[in-house]
Design a protein that fits this description.
8 helices, flat, single chain
Length: 171
């Protein structure tokens, strides 16, 4: 619902004397990343809040600090948090491709975290966790392809998706 999303955006932009609510929220999520018991909740919260954001995120003034949270969740050693980061990324992919007018050249950004996870090496002790994570990453790739190659896109979009998303991940 557009009115709900507008209200959430309005709330996130509300300020007290010192900061906006989104700035407070970003700092809170960054501090939660340092607490082991809260770690896997961070990407869950990140993904839900991201779905409520309506502005083109790549032009949002908090874009870098907001995406640093996702990046930190991908780079943690906790496998549950990595799984949740992938699920949150799937939500961002959905939002980026279906709700915004994302330029095709920005598609490469959507595939980078997925491709980099496929290149990671794991020790033999981590084999079970690595297989679960790999399945989740492959699911994220399927999600990305599903939205990137939708029939409603024109041929220039499809060509860009082919070059910027399909080739790097398959390589």
């Amino acid at each position: 619902e557009k009115h709900v999303m507008r209200k959430v955006t309005e709330i996130l932009q509300t300020t007290d004397e010192e900061q906006t609510y989104i700035e407070f929220y970003i700092r809170k999520l960054e501090s939660m990343l340092k607490e082991k018991q809260c770690l896997s909740s961070v990407p869950q919260i990140w993904g839900v809040v991201t779905l409520f954001l309506q502005c083109p995120l790549n032009r949002w003034q908090y874009f870098n600090s907001w995406f640093k949270i996702a990046q930190d969740a991908f780079n943690t050693t906790d496998m549950q948090t990595k799984q949740e980061a992938n699920y949150a990324w799937n939500r961002y992919v959905y939002l980026s491709i279906t709700n915004s007018k994302m330029p095709p050249k920005s598609l490469a950004l959507l595939g980078q975290p997925l491709a980099s996870q496929l290149r990671r090496k794991f020790s033999s002790k981590q084999a079970d966790d690595a297989m679960k994570l790999r399945r989740t990453v492959i699911g994220g790739i399927c999600n990305l392809y599903y939205y990137a190659f939708r029939p409603i896109h024109d041929s220039s979009w499809t060509d860009a998706a082919w070059d910027l998303v399909l080739h790097p991940i398959m390589a």
